[in-house]
C-alpha cells in the first residue's frame, strides 16, 4: 500500500497552510510566517478520501503535523496530562502544542528520541507507568508503538482519539490493561506494543525498568483515587467529552491494511464484528465502500453516546451497553486500592515473562 499523499489531499493541505499561515506563525513559529512547504511526508493510514496524517516541513525550518480530522479528543487528553503533572511524582509530562481548526488541526512535531542514559530510561518508565494507569482507567485504546513515542525521558501519546473508548459486550470483563495496546499481548514477541517505544539504545542498559514502570503505575492509581473526581467536574479536564466524537476500533487496522492489498480476503476471512448483529450489514457495507476507495474505514461514537457513527451519520444504533464517558465515570467513582494491586499483579506477570526480553532485544537492533 502506497504511503504517498494523494494529490487532492495534498492540495487541500496546501489550502489549509495558506488559510492558517498567520495562526501558525503565532502558535508555532515565534511570530515568523512558516513560508512555502518544502516537504510532505504521509505518516498515517488513508481515511476519508485518501487523507492522511502528514508531517509538513516549511522553508523556515518549522515542522508540523497536519491531521485531517477534528482534534477534540486530543485537546481533552492534553488537558488531562496537564492536570496530571503537578499531582504525580513523575511529573511534569510533555504534551505537544495543538492548533485546532473546524475539521482538521495542526500539532507540534516532536521528534522521537530514545532514552540516552540509564537515568533517562528509568524516568521514562516511571512516567510511562503513571500514564498506563490513565490509559487503563480512562479506557484509552490503540496505545501501540506508532502512537506512543519516546522523547528522551518523556513518553508522549501522539494520538489520543480513543480516550473513553466504549466497551464491547464481548470484552466487558476483560482487564483494561489488556485492551490498551501498551503491553505486549498474548504473543509477547510483538514489539509493536507501546512499551517498546521507550526501550533505550543498545548501549544503554535499561536498569530496573520493570520496577520503575510498576511504581509509576501505582502512583498513577493513587493520583486517580485521590483527585479523580476533579476530572469529571464541570470545569475538569474531561469537560466536553460527552459531545466529542471518539474513535472506535472495530477491527485491528492491520486487517484493513491487508484488505486493501487483498480485497477478496476481506469478504471471506474477517471475524464477526463485536457489535449487535443488527448493525452488521450497515457497518460491513460502509467498510466495503471505504476500502473500494482505498481508505481504511473509520468509526466513532460520541463520548456520551452509544450509537456508532461514520462519515457524519449514525451507522448503527445502541451498539454499546453504556457510553465511554459513563464507563470512565463509574470506574473513577469505584476505583480502589484493590484495583491498583490487581493491575500491579497483572503488570508484574506480563513483564516477568521471557517473551518480553525478545521484544527488547529486537527493538534495540531494529532502531
Commentary on this structure:
The radius of gyration is 20 Å and the shape is globular. The protein has 367 residues and is α+β, with helices and mostly antiparallel strands. It has a five-stranded antiparallel β-sheet with strand order 1-2-3-5-4, covered by helices on one side. Mean pLDDT is 89; it is low at 354-367. The protein is built from ten helices and eleven strands. The protein has helices at 7-27, 72-84, 118-137, 209-227, 253-261, 263-269, 280-293, 324-334, 337-352, 355-366, and strands at residues 37-42, 54-58, 63-67, 98-100, 105-108, 148-151, 154-157, 245-248, 299-302, 308-310, 313-316. It has three domains: 7-68, no CATH class; 73-94 and 112-238 and 327-366, Orthogonal Bundle (Phosphatidylinositol 3-kinase Catalytic Subunit, Chain A, Domain 5); 243-322, no CATH class. The relative contact order is 0.13.
- Estimate the global geometry from the Cα principal axes: globular
Q: Strand portion, in percent?
A: 5-15%
Number of helices: 10
Give me the side-by-side strand order of the main sheet.
Answer: 1-2-3-5-4
Q: Find the count of extended strands (DSSP E, 2+ residues).
A: 11
CA(first)-CA(last) distance? 22 Å
Stretches where pLDDT is under 50 for at least 5 consecutive residues are 354-367
CATH-level-2 architecture of the largest domain = Orthogonal Bundle
Radius of gyration using CA atoms only: 20 Å
What is the fold named in CATH at topology level of the largest domain?
Phosphatidylinositol 3-kinase Catalytic Subunit, Chain A, Domain 5
